[in-house]
Amino acid sequence: MSQRRFSILLALSGLSGFCAVTLGALGAHALRATLTERQTLGAWQTAANYHLAHSIAALGLLLLAQQQTSLHARLLHRISATWLLGCLLFSGSIYGLALGGPRLLGPITPLGGLAFMAGWGGVVWLAFKLKPEAESGS
């Protein structure tokens, strides 16, 4: 993958993590009364947790990709992008629903969940594709 695409994914990972922390804090403080009244505080917290976890995971894979062959790096970049898409679809739709957004956001949430699962499946697949380094001195 080109340095430009890597830089874009890296920036998106950072932005996603920033947004996860910001939205988590908003839910815990500024929006707490509204979310409690709507009985959606738990949903908001779930969205923020998944958002932050997958932002960090995407960042980690991007950094790991810098040490891999181009084929493996490309797959790691795709997995990171898939997780970032999952953050947008899964967490984004839950944030919207928690604040009273249109019900049509509901069917988007599982698509984000599928993106998260696809990314983790990609990690498992890649684990079987990586060849261990020859042990030195044995």
Q: How many extended strands?
A: 0
Structural class: mainly alpha
Number of domains: 1
Rg (C-alpha, Å): 17 Å
What is the H-and-E element order?
HHHHH
Task: Name the helicity range.
Answer: over 70%
Any idea of the CATH class? Mainly Alpha
How would you sum up the global shape? elongated
pLDDT under 50 segments (min length 5)?
134-138
Largest sheet: none
Beta-strand content estimate: under 5%
The CATH architecture is Up-down Bundle
For the termini, the CA-CA separation is 35 Å
Remind me, CATH topology? Answer: Four Helix Bundle (Hemerythrin (Met), subunit A)
Q: Mean pLDDT, as a whole number?
A: 92
Helix count equals: 5
Protein model, in words:
The protein has 138 residues and is mainly α. It contains five helices and no strands. The protein has helices spanning 3-28, 32-37, 41-65, 70-98, 108-129. Helix 1 (3-28) packs antiparallel against helix 3 (41-65), helix 3 (41-65) runs antiparallel to helix 4 and helix 4 (70-98) runs antiparallel to helix 5 (108-129). The two termini are 35 Å apart.
Question: Could you give a short description of this structure?
Answer:
This protein is mainly α and 138 residues long. The chain has helices spanning 3-28, 32-37, 41-65, 70-98, 108-129.
